[in-house]
Amino acid sequence: MSVDRSVTFTGIKFENPFLLSSAPPTESESNITRAFEAGWGGVVTKTIGLHPVVNVYGAKAKFMRTTPEDANVSMKKRAGAALHSSWNWELISDKTLEWWAPRIRRIKEAFPNKVLIASIMAGSGNDKELKHWQELAETAQGEGADGLELNFSCPHMDRRDMGSNIGKDQGLCSVVTEAVKEVAKVPVWCKLTPATADIVVEAAACFRGGADAIVSSNTFPSIPLIDPETLEFEINVDGLVSSGGLGGPAILPLALAKMAQLTKAFPDKSFSGIGGISDFNQAASYFLLGCGTVQVCTAAMLDQAVGPNVIKRLLTGLDKFIEEHAKDGWKSVEDFRGIRRDRIVLQSEIRRPEAAEYHSGYETVEGYAAPQPEEVVRA
Length: 379
Ligand SMILES: Cc1cc2nc3c(=O)[nH]c(=O)nc-3n(C[C@H](O)[C@H](O)[C@H](O)COP(=O)(O)O)c2cc1C
What we know:
Elements: E1 7-9, E2 12-14, E3 18-20, H1 29-38, E4 42-44, E5 61-66, E6 73-74, E7 82-88, H2 97-110, E8 115-120, H3 127-142, E9 147-152, H4 164-167, H5 170-183, E10 188-192, H6 199-208, E11 213-216, E12 220-222, E13 244-247, H7 252-265, E14 271-274, H8 280-289, E15 293-296, H9 298-301, H10 308-324, H11 373-378
Parallel strand pairs: 3-4, 3-15, 4-8, 8-9, 9-10, 10-11, 11-14, 14-15
Antiparallel strand pairs: 1-2, 5-6, 5-7, 7-13, 12-13
Helix pairs in contact: 3-5, 5-6, 7-8, 8-10
């Protein structure tokens, strides 16, 4: 039985469900070209805006690694350390819409079967800013973009009326989505921030505004560690730091929890999963929870900037996974998408041990002290 890697997501046909997310891997024409040649099914461009963008002095992103013997987490390079996370305070693209427009066209002409989603961002709260969203949307789709991703999620914009501050306000989520939908001829995805109490609220607002899909997660708000020797933050400018975004392996279970909330609340809607994916094992969790596509940033940044080995692993992993389940009749992602969504239930619905094997919670468990004998006896 042959594997069908293709998916149709929000009406767009993808040759495979793996995209580079909006970030440095998709910040230029040459990167996106290399990404498509490497096998990615689609890309979401680095977020495009209309306002001038000037990043902080020095590094915009760094990587934290951890060591097995002491679980130390640090940006310092150490032999034998494994990736823990990425940390960034990079703003959206510092290239203008005029710079992006001809490049979107050229990329689409060169790769008509690959999917290019334009990530866009403007302000909020007044009609002029809503018009900016519409101008960005109309230009990107006019140049051939297959879809639009509205960035409601950047955790560290220098303007308060942008990014995750939109994603934290259900009213703004609805209004901005609706404004873009008024002019959109292509599907509209909303990328939400994970930094709210209940992401289902903001997702519902986006759907009310007409969103075709929700994308989650962007990076989680975080700060770098303080070096105990120098007493300086590991990344800083003039000794100062501000909140930035955490990505990579560290956020995988957190991002999955957000996605589970979403797919359980809206089982019939479309979701694109992001957070901590570097090979198929992690992508599988997102598909099994109900995602139709997944996106990658950190792992691709660390693999020749666009992830040629990451996409190879994702594709071979997908093929192998489906082939192993050929006996179950699986041929494509659609055959297993969402089949583990219903396994997430309330704590009170989880079975308790039978009386004979239950020691009132005093069983020896990793991370807990051994039970006191008299307590076990009493139990
Ligand atoms: C350096 C850097 C820049 C990013 N820039 C953007 C951006 O412009 N727009 C956006 O929607 N997300 C941006 N992101 C977030 C990623 O697209 C992605 O949602 C996040 O990193 C989680 O995925 P990961 O665990 O695969 O890194 C950026 C992430 C990093 C590390």
